[in-house]
């Protein structure tokens, strides 16, 4: 069976943490926005690749995962505030629930998210890992 990395190039922000920055007011957006809500027509948007550093704002352990996630339950899902400002929801891997705290420093890594056995489709995306200090 041939496996297809479905989202590999189609949706670059899913694996590369690409958002936008408004050149006018210097605000960062993730996911990317076309128009800056602060500057409206005066704003000018540029593509921006986030450095992937951030900290945990809140987190939870998921025991009843969505279809495709069954083999990795339970897993930790967190709201992460990126260094540049925007926040996003992502999985934290390679750690236990007790290791995660509000304010924990994290770094993004590129990992396989879902493997659909029947169709042979693998989805890739960003996940986060605790930064040991
Ligand atoms: Zn702006």
Strand content bin = over 45%
Q: State the secondary-structure class.
A: mainly beta
**What order do the strands of the largest sheet run in, or round the barrel if closed?**
5-6-7-9-8
Radius of gyration: 16 Å
Span of the ends, CA to CA: 43 Å
Major sheet characteristics: 5 strands, mixed, barrel
Architecture overview:
The protein is mainly beta. 3% of the residues lie in helices and 46% in strands. It has a 5-stranded mixed β-barrel. It is globular. It starts with a strand and ends with a strand. About 5% of the residues have low confidence. The structure holds zinc ion. Zinc ion (ZN) binds next to loops. This is Zn-ribbon domain-containing OB-fold protein. InterPro entries: ChsH2_C, ChsH2_Znr, NA-bd_OB-fold, Thioester_dehydratase-like. It comes from Candidatus Altarchaeum hamiconexum.
